[in-house]
């Protein structure tokens, strides 16, 4: 099968297009997915650069990618949840890094898989699992509810844009930080935008004089602002700054969870959440997709079109 691989840690130039990579085996409780589209997340190139080596076992050569939307090709033993022909999505993270989603076929444990939302195309669907679960799990673990005010740091990014919509679906008022060029985009998603440069805390306080109930951080380096705008008794969490735990915040790492993914699918099919796609690259241009992700100025998700 065709796949993007790398045989050592490094920068984008270690990526190679392999034409005859062996197909993955399909173990008990797994499905084999023919990949229609995958999605780029910063963790993909951070793993490639070696940053997760202390945390996860790596088996070279690596096929990167954890997000996938595709069609079930076949199922493993004792896998009644799915059948060949089912259209599915997955945050296909395993316990080690080797056989990812930037390939024509990927095997995924059923604990990572859900049905594809009927109202998303393949590229949109591929962008939902990791970013959507990151936003959903942080917001729900912080107990966001009806009538609360939520500040979303980096609200126009791949995770932030989904967090805005999910928080709105949970009944919250949302304030989102972004550059001025992204403010109309945030308004379309239902957020009240604020410029992140300069006196961010002051601008948030103008919109929420009593402070905000919840702060979710998807960028890091904003702890001072979070503390300055959080109402008494408020909650906050981050996926980018482990120091939040020192003052009662939640430091979260997204987990594969089929039930949570199904909850996201329901929100999408109800029309409460959609997946903004910034750009789509063919499989052979993953290096270019990584470079765009590394620029740090992406509105929404980056998709990798594998097959149709």
TrEMBL record:
CDD domains assigned to the protein according to its UniProt record, in alphabetical order: MDR_like_2 (cd05289)
Keywords: Oxidoreductase
Domain (Enoyl reductase (ER)) ranges: 10-304
Record Gene3D superfamilies: Medium-chain alcohol dehydrogenases, catalytic domain, NAD(P)-binding Rossmann-like Domain
Annotated GO MF terms: oxidoreductase activity; zinc ion binding
Claim: Oxidoreductase is one of the keywords in the record: yes
Superkingdom, taxonomy of origin: Bacteria
Pfam families: ADH_N (PF08240), ADH_zinc_N_2 (PF13602)
PANTHER family membership: ALCOHOL DEHYDROGENASE RELATED, RETICULON-4-INTERACTING PROTEIN 1, MITOCHONDRIAL
Protein name: NADP-dependent oxidoreductase
Organism (species): Knoellia koreensis
């Amino acid at each position: 099968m065709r796949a993007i691989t790398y045989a050592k840690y490094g920068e984008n130039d270690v990526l190679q297009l392999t034409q005859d990579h062996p197909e993955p085996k399909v173990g008990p409780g797994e499905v084999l997915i023919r990949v229609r589209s995958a999605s780029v997340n910063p963790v993909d190139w951070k793993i490639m650069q070696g940053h997760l080596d202390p945390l996860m076992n790596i088996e070279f050569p690596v096929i990167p990618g954890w997000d996938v939307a595709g069609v079930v090709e076949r199922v493993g033993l004792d896998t009644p949840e799915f059948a060949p022909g089912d259209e599915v999505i997955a945050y296909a993270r395993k316990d080690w890094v080797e056989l990812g989603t930037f390939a024509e076929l990927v095997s995924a444990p059923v604990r990572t898989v859900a049905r594809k939302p009927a109202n998303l195309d393949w590229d949109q669907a591929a962008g939902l699992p990791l970013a959507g679960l990151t936003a959903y799990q942080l917001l729900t673990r912080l107990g966001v509810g009806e009538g609360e005010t939520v500040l979303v740091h980096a609200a126009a990014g791949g995770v932030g844009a989904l967090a805005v919509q999910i928080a709105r679906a949970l009944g919250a008022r949302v304030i989102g930080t972004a550059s001025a060029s992204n403010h109309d985009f945030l308004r379309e998603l239902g957020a009240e935008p604020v410029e992140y440069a300069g006196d961010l805390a002051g601008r948030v306080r103008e919109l929420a004089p009593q402070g905000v109930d919840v702060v979710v951080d998807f960028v890091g380096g904003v702890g001072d602002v979070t503390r300055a705008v959080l109402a008494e008794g408020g909650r906050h969490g981050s996926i980018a700054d482990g120091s939040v735990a020192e003052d009662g915040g939640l430091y979260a790492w997204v987990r594969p969870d089929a039930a949570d993914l199904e909850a996201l699918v329901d929100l999408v099919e109800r029309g409460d959440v959609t997946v903004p796609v910034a750009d789509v690259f063919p499989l052979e241009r993953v290096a270019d997709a990584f470079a765009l992700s590394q620029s740090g100025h992406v509105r929404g998700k980056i998709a990798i079109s594998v097959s149709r």
